[in-house]
Amino acid sequence: MVQGTRGWIARVVACVGLALTAASGAEPDLWSLGPIARPGVPSSETTSPNPIDAFLASEYRAKGLEPSGPADKQTLLRRVTLDLTGLPPTPAEQAAFLHDESPNAYETVVDRLLASEQHGVRFGRHWLDVLRYADVDERMVAAPGIHLWRDWVIRALNDDVPYDQFVRAQLTGYRTTERTQMSATGHRSRKEPRPDDLFALGLLARGAVIRDGKDDGELPIAAVETVSAAFMGMTVACAKCHDHMYDPIKQRDYYAMKALFDPLIVRKVTLASPAEILAEGKAIGEVERKREMAQGPIDDLLAPYKKRLYDDRVAMLPPDVQAVIHKPERQRSAAEQKIADDYFPVLRIDTGNILEIMPEPDRKKYRELQARLDGAGGRRGSSLPAFWTVEVDPKRETEPSYILTSGDPERPEKDHAVTPGWPFAPSGLEFREGRIEGFSDWLTAPDNPLFARVVVNRLWQWHFGEGLHKTPSDFGVLGGTPSNPALLDWLASEFVSRGFGMKAMHRLMVTSEAYKRASEAASAVAKADAAIDPTNAQLWRFPLRRLDAESIWDAIWTAAGGLDATVGGPSFDPAGAGRSGPRGGSPARAKTNRRAAYMIRGYSTSRDVVPNFLQAFDVDDGRVPCPVRTRTVSPPQALFLMNSDAIEKATEKFAERLKAESGGDLGGAVDLAYRIAVARPPTASERDRALAYLDHDPTRLKGLGWLVFNLDEFLYVR
Q1: Percent of the chain with pLDDT over 90
Q2: Per-residue confidence (pLDDT) for residue 427, from 0 to 100
Q3: Which residues, including other chains, have CB under 8 Å from residue 173's CB and lie 6 or more apart?
Q4: In what helix (H) or strand (E) does residue 686 lie, and over which residues does it extend?
Q5: Which residue(s) pair with 140 in the sheet?
């Protein structure tokens, strides 16, 4: 065994000088771009068989740290259950773990949690923060079916789809790098992708925006900035307007990467069987037939009045314009047609204008005919479910791409054309199977140092609260260096050697002694360690962590006994109002006690899309990638837990549950309340105070539920 940390001193020292290099104008040699050389596991005094602990123990020795001891079983069970599924352990699960004295009892729990379909819901939410999922984003084209992308992400994580396939599918629709096949006659053709991977392309379709009736060119820009941050860990977006100030990323690199996605357009896919499509077409046709029959008499009634108003308005126009208007449309030149189009708003005759000049008998007849039309049914588009995917437009693929100094796709710099590519790309790029395909093959290659380093750092962050590299989406100069570079690279190489299996890495991390460590230490030891490592960068104790918004919501409704843990489906609005958002992106009325991972989020200038609960507890709206959520403790959070309608309903149901499951025994109800809410029995003093509060009155169980929901311990994981 070798000392893994010592071999990294030279690299760390070199990284410190990167900012000076950038300032001098020389191209910096980023540590994150260096090849991953698997470090040897340090020899250590730890008895843990987990290599993670050996790397950390080496740092403890070097810095004189004394780690805290192991957490108790109740604390550990709550920690890992909330971590891996986002749900608290049930009283039955608590009892089973406490009574299991086998040496692998904890590992058995971890395996059970990783096999749960709720694991995908939990980590799907983590990933969708990074990938900027939103149900509504102004004029987002893909809004009506975007939840199907979220469902694909959750299902892929539950199925433990290898990370390289997870990423490739979202970029290309193919999990494999083998996208073509050869027939027996020597004809090469495209392989059919998995049908369900159509939904993976929601990552790219999510960026398409329509404004003023046309594509505003947002899709390729959104793709560059999301993909580079999420999978490359680089702030490529900083080069949109000028060369990157610190990292070796030129403005040309940004637009070369944009050129990868420039040929993409969105395409609507109807998700229905042939029989459903035929039935829908028949229903639409029947409504249209009835409306045409009712519309004819209305048109005949309005026609003479409309012509009179129209002729009057045309007569007020200049003679040359009148000549254009009187000319049949097919005989107009392009210039003349533009004149006619420009004057269309002036000449348009609305029904209201006609009714103003119409005599009362005809107005009465109009109202009768209009009532008949209304009775024929409203105009309807297709109600069949649909999903918006992306595909390459052959015409766009032949068009050149340019640098956009202004950022406006309508103002390209024609003298600054760029070819498709990306920062740090190898020479001699070939795009035989497509631009994005070529990029994805490079991105997901086992020897790409950024790909593996970035993702194992994210997984570490989600388990320990902070990554080994503190800025998970910035592995550039300003991101600094990892707290334990050797451990980060060992994890990256281990991840690659295990075939990019994410569940294996989750298991490796949560079965380490570092993860199972207590969040408190003896006062003297804690004081000495805090003086050496005040930020706990070396994890000499497990970090105390505040639950995120989704876990708080889920814990409340789990306690109330009313959480709907159904996996998949459209988002819900906890207001229960079925608010309609732009382009139908907001959900219709639905259950409001679902897991908060399915709660609506997004952005609109006309209304708040993100529910007040999510806003209060620091959830972003999905407009930009969110690698690390803001962490606040604020009055709106306390007010929600004290006064909200959700808490009022949940405490009422919680009280009913306590009464029913305790058989009316108030002592048993107090014990159950604590086991459900904070996964432990109450202390003797807590029990006495709770019974004194209840004062033999079962109706006060609702107040007891309110009290445990407002415990700090309910909101934090030790």
Answers
A1: 74
A2: 82
A3: 193, 197, 198, 200, 201, 389
A4: helix 684-694
A5: 209
